[in-house]
Design a protein that fits this description.
Key component of the proton channel; it plays a direct role in the translocation of protons across the membrane. The chain contains eight helices and four strands; from the N terminus they run ββααααββαααα. The chain is mainly alpha-helical and about 240 residues long.
């Protein structure tokens, strides 16, 4: 893309520390949208759900299914709020830049926050930290530490390396898919304007790609949530 994200340079007086304003803005917008969706879904709850409440309960059941496939429900039920939040938040964040892209001057403001590796790697790091926390909380530190030398102590360095690779792959997979989708959408949009007066011809592939990007956004939100529960089950379950 020719457009650059607006940066606040030299944050806190540190020359090499840049602060991406657009990512921060879009992260905040995503959070507000998720909050509004969950608030509306929780209002006027009925024993026989209809409409939006029915849709949200379907999402809750979907997340329950993810947890049930990775660990015992008695152990995993505590992670339902985490899984639900990740699924909804990541999906909303993925599709914001697909719906439209806001460019003012040469600066890209409106985009998917998950198209920034800083956000996705931060999310993945938080997930890995949570897995360690709950692993110690559920098993106790002594039993948790023994998992790193099972079945043989020789595996200890490999299991330590695995923690770093899990963080990188979890974050970079999400970033790569969303970033690539936005680049291609930007290229199709440029082709549409360059092909004037045949712009309407380029609208068809642009709409097709937007639909495909919505699908990819949903799949990536599912994969991130699923892998989160898989990593969590490895830490809290005795057999995995």
């Amino acid at each position: 893309m020719d457009h650059e994200s607006p940066l606040f340079h030299d944050l806190f007086g540190i020359p090499w520390l840049d602060f991406d304003l657009s990512t921060t803005l879009m992260t905040f917008i995503s959070s507000v949208i998720v909050f509004i969706i969950c608030t509306l879904a929780a209002r006027n709850l009925k024993m026989k759900p209809t409409g939006f409440q029915n849709f949200m309960e379907w999402i809750v059941d979907f997340v329950k299914g993810i947890i049930g496939d990775t660990m015992d429900w008695k152990t995993g039920k505590v992670f339902l709020p985490l899984g639900l939040t990740l699924l909804v938040y990541i999906f909303i964040s993925n599709i914001l830049g697909v719906i439209t892209m806001g460019v003012w001057g040469h600066e890209l403001w409106w985009k998917s926050p998950t198209s920034d590796a800083t956000l996705t790697l931060t999310l993945s790091a938080l997930v890995i930290v949570l897995t360690h926390y709950y692993g110690v909380k559920v098993k106790g530190f002594k039993e948790y530490a023994k998992d790193y030398v099972r079945p043989v102590p020789f595996l200890l360095p490999f299991k330590i390396i695995e923690e770093f690779t899990n963080t990188l792959t979890l974050g970079l997979r999400l970033f790569g898919n969303i970033f690539a989708g936005e680049i291609l959408l930007s290229l199709i949009t440029k082709m549409a304007f360059a092909a004037a007066p045949f712009t309407f011809i380029a609208i068809i592939p642009m709409m097709a790609w937007q639909g495909f990007s919505l699908f990819i956004g949903a799949i990536q939100a599912f994969i991130f949530t699923m892998l989160t529960m898989v990593y969590m089950s490895h830490k809290v379950s005795s057999d995995h």
